[in-house]
Amino acid sequence: MNPDDACPIRDILNRFGDKWSILVMVQLHRHRVLRFSAIGKSIPDISQRMLAVTLRTLEADGLVKRKVYPEVPPRVEYQLTTMGESLIPLIRNMVEWARENRGEIIRSRNAYEGRE
Fold this sequence. Notes:
Blueprint: H1 8-16, H2 21-31, E1 34-35, H3 36-42, H4 48-60, E2 64-69, E3 75-80, H5 82-112
Antiparallel strand pairs: 1-3, 2-3
Helix pairs in contact: 2-5
Domain HTH hxlR-type: 7-106
Keywords: DNA-binding, Transcription, Transcription regulation
Organism: Acetobacteroides hydrogenigenes
């Protein structure tokens, strides 16, 4: 693990450091296939612009597949790729770790900020 820009993990982890990527992936895993509007409804505080940017980024990385149906109006569906699905166990582990440690982290933050 190199601390410089050539570190192979840095670029990959930066993709998941945003607020939305993991949430979008979890929804796609949960529902298997979703349309844009359904993803937006499942994450109510994401803007349409941020959802579009997030989906494009995940698609560019090969984690999400976009399928356009030649209909009027066009129907577009999203689903995780095999590589995207392979991240789900890791995301589950992070969620479980966060659940187990959330109270201690909050106590530590409060102590650091002088609230305890």
